[in-house]
Design brief:
Largest sheet: 7 strands, mixed
Shape: globular
Strand content: 15-25%
Order of helices and strands: HHHHEEHEHHEHEEEHEHEEEH
Number of domains: 3
Distance between the termini: 60 Å
């Protein structure tokens, strides 16, 4: 067995780990853009390499054996060390090059990431940055699976996101959350808006859960007539006098002449953070992006 461990394929071990996390071969295939048959073939090859049974059928599914659980535990260590090795190799070079895959939520893509990209183009022209707008809860899962290198995420007060043992998180800045109404409305506080329509993010999102809770604390159940993840649509509906909204400063309510932004009781703030796979935070391309993001955050918040 010990002689065969050295021959184990790290990519196949990653698939085994994903099966442990996601529960089904179909879910692993969907997450990693494989076909279910390809995942099954790779896991069967891993069993041959290991020389022991790793999966056993349970109804229409499969479950990991005790030996597979043991391999997954060691896989976490191997993947972290691989991240550190790649970072060390990159640091040995004279310039920061390669491709950095970033996942970020909407207002970060609008108001934080562009400043970082402009700075990186000047300071690290050999670094290619690919940015995808994605919800943090989905993005962190994809990060662990290897689809992204860094996630720029958001966390609403009272609604902490689950932490993964496979990742490292760095808090970047806080972003105050505001009540926004049409400049033509007379209401000045949240309790006064009990009879007004609202626009909110979809049910099940932390932003929606937070906004619903804030309205309940103010003594009413919000009349949510409009639902969208796009905060620019929120502001457009407010501007037209069609709804009230609860949005963060980075969404740009101060840039809309027909919108009034007011502070909420307690001045709640969402936390903006970055997350990488454990061991990857010292990689030059990740360090360069994080530095650029941090240096531009004050300008973005002010703008």
């Amino acid at each position: 067995m010990l002689r065969k461990v050295a021959m184990l394929d790290l990519r196949r071990l990653r698939l085994l780990r994903e099966l442990r996390r996601r529960g089904t071969i179909t879910a692993v295939a969907e997450a990693l853009s494989y076909s279910p048959s390809a995942v099954s073939q790779q896991l069967a090859a891993l069993e041959r390499e290991a020389g022991v049974r790793l999966l056993e059928p349970t109804g229409r599914r499969v479950r990991l054996t005790a030996q597979a659980d043991l391999l997954v535990a060691h896989t976490e260590v191997l993947l972290e060390e691989m991240e550190r090795a790649e970072a060390a190799l990159a640091r040995s070079l004279n310039e920061t090059v390669g491709t950095l895959r970033v996942a970020a939520f909407q207002t970060a893509v609008l108001n934080l990431v562009p400043q970082a990209l402009a700075k990186l183009e000047q300071e690290h022209p050999g670094l290619r940055v690919e940015v995808t707008e994605l919800d943090p809860e989905v993005a962190v899962t994809a990060l662990v699976a290897g689809e992204f290198d860094i996630v720029v995420g958001e966390e609403y007060p009272g609604h902490p996101l689950p932490r993964s043992r496979q990742t490292e998180r760095t808090d970047l800045l806080t972003d105050e959350l505001r009540l926004v109404t049409s400049a033509g409305w007379s209401e000045r506080s949240l309790p006064e808006l009990a009879s007004r329509p609202f626009v909110m993010e979809p049910p099940g999102t932390t932003a929606r859960d937070w906004a619903t809770a804030v309205c309940r604390q103010a003594g009413f159940e919000a009349d949510v007539r409009y639902t969208t993840t796009d905060l620019q649509i929120h502001l457009r509906l407010v501007e037209r006098g069609l709804a009230a909204a609860l949005v963060p400063d980075l969404s740009g309510p101060g840039d809309r002449p027909g919108v009034v932004a007011r502070r909420l009781l307690g001045r709640p703030r969402r936390q903006i953070f970055t997350t990488v796979r454990r061991g990857a935070s010292v990689h030059p391309k990740i360090a360069a992006f994080t530095t650029a993001l941090t240096s531009g955050k004050d300008a973005a918040a002010a703008g």
